[in-house]
Amino acid sequence: MLLYTGELVAPRPNLGLLRFRKKRTGIRYRDRLRSSFAHSTIHGMRHVFGERHLWQRCLWLTVALAAGVAGFSMYSVLGVRHSEQLLVSLIDTTQLPVYHIDFPAVAICPWSHVNWQRAPSALLRFLPGHPNAELRETFRQLLNVLELTSFSNFKRASDLAKRNVTGLRFLKLKDLMNYLGYRCDELFVPGSCVFDETPHDCCTLFVPEQTEKGQCLVFNSLISEHSRKKQLTNKFYPHKLSTAGEESGLKFTINASYPFLRDGEETPFGMNLMIKEPRQWTNQMMYHLYPDTENFVAVHPMVTETSPNTYKMSPSKRRCYFDNEQSPNFQNTSLTYDRENCMAVCLHQIVLKTCNCSTPVFLPPFEGIRECGIMDAECLGINSDIFSYVKMGDQDKYINDSRRGHFCDCPDNCNSRQYKLTLNARKLDYPKNSTETLITAQIYYGQRVMTKIITKLKYTNLDLLANFGGIISLYIGASVMSFIELLFVLGKLMRVVIKDGYAKLKDQIK
Asked: For residue 443, what pLDDT band results from cuts at 50, 70 and 90?
């Protein structure tokens, strides 16, 4: 037998050389695939090309295709679940030490907003010189209204509409109320303030701050300018606490004597106690501190966090906002995003829309907006039912409510703290022959540890990849190496196809 370049030939008697015929293209490709899949790690592919009988090869090809289709169908279901971006909340730990968070801000808000001992000096300070008797009486009526007015009780302001208040139209109500408000040295018994078992000057712990209850004295807050300056000079502010139990937190005593009240006042000299986050403007949940009582407030904090892997989700789908995100309904304020802060800003926008003025004495201020004055009292009083009632969602479709109210779209903040409070009060025992009227209070952690709840995506990209590997391994027994092997086989086959096509094209050109 003779060997020639490019082809094999064999001698035939009297007929010269016999040329071996080339294999058909399909057979050549099948042989290459059979040799490539002879030891394949993809289950079933060896039988598709290795079995002798056609029906057996067809059977194994059907099984392999069915397994592949079933596997990728299951994976598509997982893909849909991943695209839905479902959230799940889990208890991360129940033993998180309380020193990981700031101690809550504690606000003391007297029920009465007017210290009547300063009323005569306020008359000389805020009224024009030599006011007549009618103007002085109108001013006194104004103080009666302001005494118990809070943002949820503007209805009292409508009483002023019956009087001639033109002489008070230039009066700044915020300056007036803050001037008449109770000061630190008027409320706290000297030397009674203790935090973390360390005595402090009460007036260094508690600073004046605006809330929905008017001006309050607040401890450990970051709302007022004075508090923010304190943070710049003290790296340990806001304060933290690592211990729990009575005598471990904040203690103070308030002088609840009655010389500050006006004659004939029947309301006792009580206090509102507000527990809030340091960066919160206000908190709707309040407790009452009555005279002649000893109050023990146990704080049980709970931390709620949202995983950073949800940051790419839209806030509307996540239903919460991170601190660095801006809600469309939370504008024109320097406050960090918080549901309570958002509600306060939204409420202020309702006031602006309804009466075309702002109430910075109760709500976060808006720069460049006119402050509501005595001439706006009628508008505020008539629309008090709008300001005092928050409607949720589409409740008007299902609830027949005569109150007008207002709507505020304020989702939760993604990272927040919730305080569950337990208040125990008992009658204060005085020494014999004592004429004092006091209110004592202790605010402390109920436990040294707290619960942390974390919200995260139920299916992440890593879960999708892991489930893909499990499904593909279950149905077709494949792995990453199997897919690399498949790509390698297809690459070799493609190279042969291109090479054959190039050879045919070259022959046609010759």
From this structure: very high
Q: Which of 11-15, 407-411, 492-496 is the least confident region?
A: 11-15
Distance CA 301, CA 451 (A): 8
The DSSP secondary-structure symbol of 393 reads: T
Beta-bridge mates of residue 273: 108, 287
Delimit the domains of the chain by residue range.
22-84+461-509, 93-322+415-457
Q: What is the DSSP string of 412-469?
A: EESSEEEEEEEEEEEEPPPPTT----EEEEEEEES-SEEEEEEEEESS-HHHHHHHHH
93-322+415-457: what CATH class? mainly beta
- For 44-59, the pLDDT digits (tens) are 666 666 667 777 778 7
Contact 478, 42 (CB under 8 A): yes
Q: Which of the pair, 304 or 483, is modelled with greater confidence?
A: 304
Contact 389, 403 (CB under 8 A): yes
What sign has the CA pseudo-torsion 308, 313, 318, 323? positive
Orientation of helix 480-509 relative to helix 25-36, angle to 10°: 160
Q: How far apart are CA 357 and CA 349, in angstroms?
A: 9
Encoded tokens for 338: 């918080």
Residue 6 clears pLDDT 50, i.e. is over it: no
Residue 10 pLDDT level (bands cut at 50, 70, 90): low
Q: Distances from the Cα of 126 to the Cαs of 163, 168, 358, in angstroms?
A: 18, 9, 20
Residues 6 or more apart whose Cβ sits within 8 Å of residue 255: 186, 187, 188, 189, 436, 437, 438
Q: How many other C-beta atoms are found inside a 10 Å radius of the C-beta of residue 141?
A: 15
Q: Name the residue with tokens 């203690």.
A: 251
Structure tokens at 261: 């009240």
Give residues with Cβ within 8 angstroms of 378, minimum separation 6.
Answer: 157, 158, 160, 161
The residue assigned the tokens 């009632």 is 389
